[in-house]
Amino acid sequence: MAGLPRRIIKETQRLMAEPVAGITAIPDEQNARYFHVVVAGPSQSPYEGGLFKLELFLPEEYPMSAPKVRFMTKIYHPNIDKLGRICLDILKDKWSPALQIRTVLLSIQALLSAPNPDDPLDNSVAEHWKTNEKSAIDQARQWTQLHAKSNSVNSH
Amino acid sequence: MVDLAKEAFSTNNFRLAADIYERTIRENGPTSELFLGLADSCARGGNFAKAFESYKIAYRYGKVTPEKLKHLVVGLIDTVKQDLTNSGSQQITKRSCMFTCGLCRGLLADPVTVPCGHTFCRKCFEKDKSKSCEVCGIVHYRLKLRNLNSNVILTNLIDKWFPNECKASSLKKAGNDYFTKGEYINAIKVYTEAIEMAPNDHLLRSNRCHAYASLDRYEDALADAELVIQLRPDWPKGYFRKGCAIYGLGCYEDAAVAFLQCLALDQKVSSAKDYLSKALDKILSALPSDDPKAEALQQRSNPTLLQQLIEENFSSPLLLPNISSTLSNLAKIVKDTINTASNFSQEPTPQLMVAPGEPSLSLNEGKVKNDIDRQNACQESKLKETEVQEYLSEKLRCNSLPDCSLVDHLEIKKVTKPRSHSPLPPSPVSRKRLRNPSTAQIPLSPTRSSPQKVLKSTSNSSASDKSLSPLTAAVAEPAFPTHMKPEQTNIEDLECGLCYRLFFEPVTTPCGHTFCRKCLDRCLDHTVTCPMCKGNLAEYLAERRQAVTDAIQCIMETYFKQEYIERCKINDEEMIELARMGSDQQSEIPVFVCTLTFPTIACPLHIFEPRYRLMVRQCMESGTRQFGMCLPSSDNDNEFSDFGCMLEIRDVQYFPDGRSVVDTKGGRRFKVISRGKRDGYNTAKVEFLSDKPIAPEDTQSVNALQIEIHAMINTWLSKLPSSHNARIRQHFGVLPELDTSFSFSVNGPAWAWWAMAVLPLDSRVQMAMLGMCSLKERLIALKKIVEYMNRRGSR
């Protein structure tokens, strides 16, 4: 297999040099295509105060195909399922090779601020969100307290 | 008779037309119209001496309007064009520019890159109704300008590198608004302000010149026009402006020369043609020498060369002007213009200096050099007159040639010195330049320090000092302040948003985004939208555009030379790696996993999967034109079979949506040693297979065997329904003939592979036979199969 493409090297360098506020992404020591990501829950969202661990993997065809991203920390969100899989258009059919790790992580951060129960991945959570938004948000806040507090980052 | 002459004229038989007119004049007596016809015929036929003479007579016999001189104008323009071809300096094809619009030659404003890769101001291209590219001549019939977005990279670079010029450009717009409202004084005020910000912008001066001329301030207009020409000797409109100013001043001969200079550079400027015929009309309707008013004509101040010549010639007692020498000198002036223009490659230089390293040095040098050259040039232009006069007096002394023949041009050539206006340091021509046709047009840099020139400029320094107007002196000063702003040249400004490297073969989409061609091609394999803005690129893909964005290419070669050379190296290495595929036992081959193919057998493929589109493109670009074909594997460990066959690409036909039909033919067989991946498709290290040589004692028996099986296959074919037979012929052709030279071949006889491809065999059997390296064994196996088939068929 050929060495790491220059694009991935550059992206990594730039992520380190100018990190995005509220996001850290550190490449794995063994595999430069695998990133350990931590996203801080956006303020004024039920995830505020939480630190969410994610894994991001750049497949062989990257940037022709999208990075694979998954939440490692449990999160109560209509577009994220129990396995941490994310329903986000730019990770699927709306992917463009001009997007990058940085833009993907920013989009995920934005998804936490603006859950979209009309395009759900976890139907029960989405249903909860649609029928009783306040209760759903409370639940999300509880889960954040339970699973995403800085010192007790759980993975499943 | 006249009808006959007209007919001859209309069929370009000018000599015959002239003869008929002459005879008619002899027979019917002179009229203005007949002489005009004769003159036109002579002018179009290239005999200007006689043409001018006849025009003069036509004017004497009656009223001639400027419109009637159109054939003279056409003839003159033709001569100028011919001169270009003769002198070999036909290179008026405009060379590549960086920040300059190919149409207005000014700093690009709202740059749009058209499909041929050349960039123009949106306004300029909008105005050009021909829809043809001024630089390369390609006509973009279907181009809709409103569907083209501005080139993002160039817009950003110009904003960043030319802040003052951008401000001046907005002032220019304000000035243009005043101008259209007829407020010329206000317009001049704003233009002047803008000129202070961007003293080297010829468009500002050209516009101010126009405004001056509109106020009948022709002296001021002329001064501006001269400067326009000095700044942009390759810009036709500068000469037009000059012509208009001189025309306004009443010096029609000079004006005619200027208009012809304009037309020499661009034959399409109709307003210049109109003015040229008006000026010629004034010249021709000038009073004959026996008229007392002629003296007033001669006393005109500041008589220039052409004027002198024409007056001298026209005022000769017999009214037999020796126009030939006039014309040859006219041609010389025009040719000088063209030489200057084609040697000229003025590009605006951004207001930035690279770090005190080497690049800045060369830039500085270029600039100083440029200034010197420019000074030289303007001294030279002043010298030109005396020079030509010397030449002319010599010419007159020994002039015996009836027209401006080749000899004249040869002599003129000796006098004409190449002039240098190139502000850029001569860049070492990289391999890329040679490879790229658009940049290969760059003319040879003219000799910089011809001893003649140095001699002239020193010996005539006093004269040139006088002639340097304050304005000229101002321009000779360094054009741009040399700030130390190394951070302004940021390589990231010219980075592809897909591979994060410096552009290589940058292409620009209709939506204005630039990528490396190969990067964009790969994206389009997956989806036909712009990776940046998701704009639809279906049309772009269908047209299979390949043209490199010339401006960006030049900027990289000029301002990021080192990096660009590095980038070329990387690309070359990648290509070498691709080209090496399959060339030796140790290298990997690309593998198409689809079906089984056999040596010599044709195999058409429909390519639609993104990874295989890339694979085929890489095969074509690297020149290997071949890849391996394997069968999908049933076992879980391996994606594809252990044996396969190379396919040689014979032809690729593309569909508008990027799919393609590839016509291939089977080549060498191989055994897979190990499997890999590359850019999303499979690769394999392989061992190529070839048949063991046949022992001499076996030759006879093998030959007998092959004759037998060949016959058996024919039998089998004859028993097939005719529709089957037809389909087989359509796909695989007819059964190849017996091959008697089989004992030397790597793959054995072609007919045997044909049989294996045609016979309804299980792919495992086919695979096993593909891997057999003994012809004899393969034939025996084949015999068993055909025997079985024939038996079954007979039952």
Automatic annotation (TrEMBL), chain A:
The active site is at 87 (glycyl thioester intermediate). Gene3D superfamilies: Ubiquitin Conjugating Enzyme. GO terms for molecular function: ATP binding; transferase activity. It holds the Pfam family UQ_con. The keyword Nucleotide-binding applies. The keyword Hydrolase does not apply. Keywords: ATP-binding, Nucleotide-binding, Transferase, Ubl conjugation pathway. Residues 3-149 form the UBC core domain. CDD domains: UBCc_UBE2N. One of its GO terms (biological process) is protein ubiquitination. Belongs to the ubiquitin-conjugating enzyme family. This is UBC core domain-containing protein. It comes from Lymnaea stagnalis (Great pond snail).
TrEMBL record, chain B:
Residues 457-469 have a biased composition (Low complexity). TPR repeats lie at residues 168-201. GO terms for molecular function: ubiquitin protein ligase activity; zinc ion binding. The keyword Transferase does not apply. Keywords: Metal-binding, TPR repeat, Zinc, Zinc-finger. Pfam families: LON_substr_bdg, TPR_16, TPR_8, zf-C3HC4_2. The keyword Acyltransferase does not apply. GO terms for cellular component: cytoplasm. Residues 101-136, 496-534 form the RING-type domain. Residues 586-790 form the Lon N-terminal domain. Residues 436-456 have a biased composition (Polar residues). It comes from the Eukaryota. Residues 416-469 are annotated as: Disordered. InterPro entries: Lon_prtase_N (IPR003111), Lon_prtase_N_sf (IPR046336), PUA-like_sf (IPR015947), TPR-like_helical_dom_sf (IPR011990), TPR_rpt (IPR019734), Znf_RING (IPR001841), Znf_RING/FYVE/PHD (IPR013083), Znf_RING_CS (IPR017907). This is LON peptidase N-terminal domain and RING finger protein 3. It comes from Lymnaea stagnalis (Great pond snail). The lineage of its organism: Eukaryota, Metazoa, Spiralia, Lophotrochozoa, Mollusca.
